[in-house]
User: Which sequence fits this backbone?
């Protein structure tokens, strides 16, 4: 069953699509780019959409905590929960919002960016939304709810996950980010015969590539991904039946100490994949990461 009522769901979809379409329009206009950190950028479009999404979601879900990437004050709502699953602000439910996931692609005029929203209840991702403005494709769902998609304002349709066959003797695909490919790609190619690398800008679109069978597994090892990057996509991955774990096989956590409270960065390396891929590849990938050294 849907975790929110139909009217709230419709309002949320309208908000996400409007913000994504605005980003797509502005990608062809002039905007300012600022450096937040090393290889970490934000644009004036990110900042404006962050404000719109925060205000809109606070109006739809006034009892919940809304945490957005570009409003650092909202991150104060993330705290170690008490014994009843409540944060000090009293929220059992937290929403994590990324106004533009894949900002580098947005800045460079490429297609692979998205608007992402994820819902965490009692420390577990319950639902997610990914909207790819260039293709006008909205995907949403979660565990116990299912997966759905809508393209170009058409009617919602079930999204059927597709598991690609894992045959090491044939070519098979792994999703990997550019930074991880530069650091680990050669060693992975030597250790894993037949691997072909697929890279997309947005974390969410990378996960969708695995859900839809473009690849069998996605690894993220560079130690910078935050809750607004992961919550929505991993809720969708779980709904699809994918394994979401670290290199030791432990489930990805959304609470302290596995998430740094000051930055909301995951402390675990992230593996998202179909069970057959994860079973075959997790140990050799762990050995490669240990030999080369995971960044901290």
Assistant:
């Amino acid at each position: 069953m849907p975790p929110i009522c139909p009217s709230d769901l419709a309002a949320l979809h309208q908000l996400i699509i409007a913000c994504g379409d605005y980003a797509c329009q502005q990608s062809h206009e002039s905007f300012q780019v600022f450096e937040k950190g090393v290889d970490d950028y934000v644009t004036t479009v990110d900042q404006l959409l962050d404000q719109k999404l925060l205000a809109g979601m606070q109006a739809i879900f006034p009892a919940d905590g809304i945490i957005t990437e570009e409003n650092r004050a909202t991150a104060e709502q993330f705290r170690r929960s008490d014994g009843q699953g409540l944060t000090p602000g009293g929220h059992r439910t937290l929403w994590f919002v990324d106004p533009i996931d894949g900002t580098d692609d947005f800045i460079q005029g490429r297609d692979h960016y998205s608007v992402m929203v994820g819902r965490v209840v009692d420390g577990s991702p319950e639902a997610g939304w990914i909207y790819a403005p260039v293709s006008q494709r909205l995907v949403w769902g979660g565990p116990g709810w299912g997966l759905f998609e809508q393209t170009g304002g058409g009617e919602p349709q079930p999204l059927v996950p597709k598991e690609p066959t894992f045959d090491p003797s044939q070519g098979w695909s792994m999703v990997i980010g550019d930074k991880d490919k530069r650091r680990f790609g050669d060693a992975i190619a030597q250790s894993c015969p037949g691997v072909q690398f697929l890279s997309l800008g947005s974390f969410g679109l990378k996960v969708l590539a695995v859900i839809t069978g473009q690849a069998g597994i996605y690894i993220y090892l560079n130690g910078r991904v935050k809750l607004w990057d992961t919550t929505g996509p991993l809720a969708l991955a779980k709904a699809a039946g994918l394994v979401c774990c670290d290199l030791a096989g432990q489930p990805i956590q959304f609470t302290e100490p596995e998430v740094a409270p000051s930055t909301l960065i995951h402390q675990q390396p992230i593996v998202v994949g179909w069970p057959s891929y994860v079973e075959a590849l997790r140990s050799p990938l762990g050995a490669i990461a240990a030999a080369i050294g995971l960044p901290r």
Notes: The first strand starts at residue 33 and ends at 37. DSSP finds seven helices and 14 strands in the chain. Residues 80-86 have pLDDT under 50 and may be disordered. The CA atoms of residues 252 and 283 lie 17 Å apart.
